[in-house]
Amino acid sequence: QVQLVESGGGLVQPGGSLRLSCAASGSTLDDYAIAWFRQAPGKEREGVSCISNTDGVTYYANSVKGRFTISRDNAKNTVYLQMNSLRPEDTAVYYCAAVRFLGVNSQGPLGPYCSTYAPKDYWGQGTQVTVSS
Hints:
By secondary structure, the chain is mainly beta. 6% of the residues lie in helices and 46% in strands. It has two helices and eleven strands. The relative contact order is 0.31.
């Protein structure tokens, strides 16, 4: 069993930065790819970014490409989402999720597993990000 806890959210002005953390406990994240999602009020959940556990491959939504960076520190069992040049439309609750991934040779490309609609093994409780002046 893996427990995921997000942190780092808050209120920031447009153009500002935040770094979200997704800390895991109960088990190592070595076998899991990690994805970040967000959901704004009245909107559907949106995939933001995803990072492989096997080869470091990353994915980004077009809306955040060039502004957000996902990374992982396996020693700390934590995944980060560095968010720069924040915009009001980035306001949402941000969630991290873990999906077991055994590598391209076993399961094919990671991309489909990061999809919003693909099942995930574990979810965090979310952290609020508000971008407003």
